[in-house]
Amino acid sequence: DVKVTQSSRYLVKRTGEKVFLECVQDMDHENMFWYRQDPGLGLRLIYFSYDVKMKEKGDIPEGYSVSREKKERFSLILESASTNQTSMYLCASSLTRGDQPQHFGDGTRLSIL
Amino acid sequence: SQKIEQNSEALNIQEGKTATLTCNYTNYSPAYLQWYRQDPGRGPVFLLLIRENEKEKRKERLKVTFDTTLKQSLFHITASQPADSATYLCALGAETSNTGKLIFGQGTTLQVKP
């Protein structure tokens, strides 16, 4: 069965720390995505990647960067965590063809103190 | 700018009735639309895809319609059950891109009472 695994379900970090969120998929998907989900705002795209070492900014990339060194792994990096980055972070993957469904992990609830 | 609207108020219905959820969009011409289900503490799970040249799609108790003139999709769950209680998200996509990038609505929470 299709599986997207996020490294942590819950994470607590301090303001100014560099934070790494990891995502691994076992479906050989080309596309991978990072979203944040906040009440009333829905899912907002931070970054996505359509191939190894390829990335594109989403709607809210400020304060974040990403890394995709291997096809199955997509990392989200908070360069210097701030309290307004407290949120639920969701990773997803999909096949190349545009209308393919996205497969999501169960999310990382990140709190920045 | 592109905007997707789903009813932000929770929808409460009685078991056995049909639930109808609405997804409206503006400033966008999607090639397809997807619906997802999200349970508390879990990631969204894909349910149905409908393309711009399709009026209706069905899957078991689920039915989706897509009206590109009204810029609206309706999502129906017939003979609803308490297990259908969840948040339902609509998402729009453009065929012009191979990135599979989607724009998500904020979701509507459905509560089915026994």
Coarse morphology of chain B:
globular
Q: Could you give the order of the helices and strands of chain A? A: EEEEEEEEEEE
Average pLDDT of chain B works out at: 92
Greatest interface (CB-CB under 8 A), with counts per chain: A-B, 30 and 29 residues
Give the C-level CATH assignment of chain A. Mainly Beta
Largest sheet of chain B: 6 strands, mixed
Contiguous helical run count of chain A: 0
Q: Per DSSP, what share of the residues of chain A sits in E-state strands of 2 or more residues?
A: over 45%
List keywords for this structure.
heterodimer; A: 113 residues; mainly beta; Immunoglobulin-like; seven-stranded mixed beta sheet; four-stranded antiparallel beta sheet; 11 strands; globular; B: 114 residues; six-stranded mixed beta sheet
Structural account:
Chain A has 113 residues and is mainly β. Helices cover 0% and strands 57% of the residues of chain A. Chain A has no helices and 11 strands. In chain A, strands 2, 4, 5, 6, 9, 10 and 11 form a 7-stranded mixed β-sheet that branches. A 4-stranded antiparallel β-sheet of chain A has the order 1-3-8-7, with no helix packed on it. Chain A is globular, with a radius of gyration of 13 Å. Chain B is mainly β and 114 residues long. Chain B has a single domain (3-113), classed as Immunoglobulins (Immunoglobulin-like, Sandwich). Chain B is built from no helices and 11 strands. Chain B has strands spanning 3-6, 11-14, 19-26, 32-38, 45-51, 56-59, 62-67, 72-77, 86-93, 102-104, 108-113. In chain B, strands 2, 4, 5, 9, 10 and 11 form a 6-stranded mixed β-sheet that branches. In chain B, strands 1-3-8-7-6 form a 5-stranded antiparallel β-sheet, with no helix packed on it. Chain B starts with a strand and ends with a strand. Chain A binds chain B through residues 4, 31, 33, 35, 40-45, 48, 50, 56, 58, 90, 92, 94-107, and chain B through 4, 8, 31-32, 34, 41-46, 49, 51, 89, 91, 93-102, 104-107.
